[in-house]
Amino acid sequence: MFIPHAAQTYIIRCKIHNFGTGVLLTTPTAGSRVVIQDSFIYQNGGGLGVQGASGAANTAVVLRTVFDNNGSFATSVTAPSRLILSASELLGSATAIVNTGNATVTSYGNNVIRGSGAPNDIQTLK
Prior knowledge:
The protein is about 0% helix and about 50% strand. It has no helices and 16 strands. The termini are far apart.
């Protein structure tokens, strides 16, 4: 699912599979965001890619979602964009989190993350 020009996109209770990248947020509009909730993203070349075009800072919020058996990565984020994970599972890919340029990857500590890569901003649930 390619998201080239959207201020806000909501993906709720969806199954996404057999794409090059399951969800790809590349909009050049700074502040764009995608919210993925209660979904299953599997058997893609990559799971979720967040990279604002022309250096735009975009955000992906992932809640209660499973990424499974996505070829090269479960999630990938390029600075200055941001990835926020809560109650999600990143499984079956050699790389769980690809972080390019020291992007902010926030976790609330309640995720299952298998494979290389890790969040660099750990928050506590309140």
